[in-house]
Amino acid sequence: MENVEKLEYSSESIKNMNERYRAAFINSLSGFKSGNMVGSIDKSSAGSLTNLAIFSSCFHLGASPPLLGLVSRPNATSRHTLDNIEKSGVYTINHINSGIFKKAHQTSARYSKETSEFHATGLTPEYIDNFEAPFVKESNLKIAMKLKQILPIEINQTQMIIGEIVNIIICPLKHNPIDEQTGHIDINKLDSIAISGLDHYHVTKSLGRLSYAKPDRPTKFI
Amino acid sequence: MENVEKLEYSSESIKNMNERYRAAFINSLSGFKSGNMVGSIDKSSAGSLTNLAIFSSCFHLGASPPLLGLVSRPNATSRHTLDNIEKSGVYTINHINSGIFKKAHQTSARYSKETSEFHATGLTPEYIDNFEAPFVKESNLKIAMKLKQILPIEINQTQMIIGEIVNIIICPLKHNPIDEQTGHIDINKLDSIAISGLDHYHVTKSLGRLSYAKPDRPTKFI
Fold first, then answer.
1. How far is B132 from chain A (nearest CA, A)?
2. How many angstroms separate the CA atoms of A220 and B144, rounded?
3. C-alpha–C-alpha distance, residues B55 and B145, integer Å
């Protein structure tokens, strides 16, 4: 196999893959993915049951208003999160770092609805005033979200959860990650990880930042 | 600043940022993003004009059918790509690697509609039989896409481009990146890059793959 120069896959060959193989294969294709845990809460449950779930599908939707999207799959694990968000209208998004990626991965196990993944994995719920949903104390970048819209994607029965960023907490700061000139946050300095496929975790190494591209000049490093 | 232990930002402080600062800041929050170039073609133009645009918003939407999503911003650069996809119904998604990330970034400059970003940046269009849209020869993972749906996100006037994967080309192969047991593709071996914020490029280093998570056992490396 090491001497093959090119691999090619048609629609037909994708269709013929077995289901789990195809899931891993197709999940690898979009490129590197964000690694976050979504915290939510079920207030109707006795004692307010917290929920925590790993998502590799968090994506930037817009800066003004500040919006993030999440893809919710039609399965049991996703469903608990979606139910809580629908009922409470709030949730948190917490960056995964290299110190907690194993615990973050473990939140994807199919725990019963009565089990809090915080408790099961040993991560610590943390709260701020006037906001119901739990953050992950061990995360270095935490975002409080307010639900704006749940958009059904009919073509494959997924749901797009669209929320507005209402609070951001960045800590602890060994090195200030904010470039005060441009607003860029260097998430390398926060030890945030990237995900590929279903189960592959990565740290990153900066190649550099590039200047705003203009047609009449070559791009250069900032 | 190096001694601050925590930074916190409210809705109000986000609203008060100037527009470019906020764009860079909010774009950094979702975590690492995929780095792809979208190839498309305008057949109505004399000589069939190709277009190439960098997107950091390509995301996995589902494996069966195999679907990828792209967020198209309401601006001129995105618009050329969207117009072409709407008319032709096909496009390509091409992973950016560390050898071409500067050229990929340069495709975001506001070239006139008559300029092909392939020509302007020195990347090479490549074709396969029975598929109109151009691939990027220098990319190591190339995906042929068929448009399924353009979903308007009314809350911020963006468009979600949803397409089905109809062909995949992986090359060149110094090391076979496919785990034949599971279907996982090791995109580290393809030298694919990750993006953060508006302009920050990264290579990755694997922390490892983790086993399928189950409630009754701790996760372990595969």
1. 16
2. 31
3. 15
State the pTM of this model.
0.96
SS (H, E, C) A162-200: EEEEEEEEECCCCCCCECCCCCCECCCCCCECEEECCCE
> What is the predicted pLDDT for the residue at A174?
81
Say whether pLDDT at B1 is over 70. Answer: no
The DSSP call for residue A57 is -
Pairing of strands B36-42, B7-10: unpaired
Q: What is the DSSP letter of B217?
A: B
Q: Could you check whether the bond before residue A172 is cis, i.e. omega within 30 degrees of 0?
A: yes
Q: Please give the structure tokens belonging to residue B94.
A: 């091409």
Query: For testing the chain A interface, which of B168, B181, B206 should be mutated: the one with the most A CBs within 10 Å?
Result: B168
Per-residue pLDDT band for B47 (boundaries 50, 70, 90) equals confident
Residues B105-155 pLDDT 10s: 999 999 998 999 999 999 999 999 999 999 999 999 999 999 999 999 999
Q: SS3 of B83, please?
A: helix
Chain A, window 35-64: residues with a beta carbon less than 8 angstroms from a chain B beta carbon: 35-36, 56-64
Which H or E run includes A8?
strand A7-10
**Phi first, then psi: what are they for A128, rounded to 5°?**
-120, 165
Best probe of the A interface among B210, B214, B221, B222, by most A CBs < 10 A, is B210
Contact A199 B192 (CB under 8 A): no
How far apart are the CA of A43 and the nearest CA of chain B, in angstroms? 23
* DSSP code of residue A216: T
A191 chain-B contacts, CB cut-off 8 A? none
Judge whether A171 is closer than 8 Å to chain B, CB to CB: yes
Q: Give the three-state DSSP class for B61.
A: strand
Q: How confident is the model at residue A201 (pLDDT cuts 50, 70, 90)?
A: very high
CB B155 within 8 A of CB A67: yes
Which chain A residues in 200-219 lie under 8 Å from chain B, judged by CB atoms?
Answer: 200-215, 218-219
Model confidence over A38-56: pLDDT tens digits? 999 998 877 789 999 999 9
